[in-house]
């Protein structure tokens, strides 16, 4: 019973968070469930696959150059998203529309209301995508200055890396 009440409170809280953002007013409903990370910016919730809104994480197999060796930043970024969702029983993802590959873009929140996209940028495992909001770009700039995550190394933006691979 206690668990059911917690889940209900989470779903209601997510509904309030999304309605205050104006997204619920457009008729979109969050998908709530246990997250499974596929890549640094892609996860599944139930049977739905989502790309996190406003970010672009290094691709699987994309290497970053450190002072002494190469690092698989794509794999490490995916691990970073796994860390953010470890132990989380559910996330809520608000579908926003498909990307050019047909994957649904979504704003995803953990049970405490933390935006997973913002957290990936903050920890230094994702770029703010070129068209994302100024606050995402400012957050990326602060993360770079603090040398968090991949910012300790030399990394090519994923959109540039994809053109050559």
Report what the structure shows.
The protein is α+β, with helices and mostly antiparallel strands. The protein has one domain (2-151): OB fold (Dihydrolipoamide Acetyltransferase, E2P). Helices cover 35% and strands 25% of the residues. The protein contains 5 helices and 10 strands. It has helices spanning 2-20, 73-85, 116-122, 134-145, 158-164, and strands at 31-33, 35-39, 42-45, 48-52, 55-56, 63-65, 70-72, 91-98, 104-109, 127-128. Strands 1-8-9-4-3-2 form a 6-stranded mixed beta sheet. It has a two-stranded antiparallel ribbon with strand order 5-10. Strands 6-7 form a two-stranded antiparallel ribbon. The chain is globular. Residues 1-26 have low confidence and may be disordered.
């Amino acid at each position: 019973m206690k668990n059911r009440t917690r889940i209900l409170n989470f779903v209601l809280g997510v509904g309030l968070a999304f309605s205050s953002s104006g997204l619920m007013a457009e008729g979109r409903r969050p998908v709530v469930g246990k997250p499974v990370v596929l890549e640094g910016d892609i996860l599944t919730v139930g049977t739905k696959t989502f790309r996190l809104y406003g970010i672009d994480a290094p691709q699987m197999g994309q290497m970053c150059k450190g002072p002494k060796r190469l690092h698989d930043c794509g794999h490490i970024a995916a691990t970073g998203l796994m860390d953010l969702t470890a132990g989380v029983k559910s996330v809520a993802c608000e579908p926003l529309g498909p990307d050019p590959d047909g994957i649904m873009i979504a704003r995803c929140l953990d049970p405490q209301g933390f935006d997973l996209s913002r957290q990936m940028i903050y920890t230094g495992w994702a770029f703010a995508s070129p068209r994302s909001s100024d606050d995402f770009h400012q957050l990326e700039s602060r993360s770079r200055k603090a040398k968090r995550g991949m910012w300790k190394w030399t990394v090519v933006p994923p959109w540039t890396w994809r053109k050559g691979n």
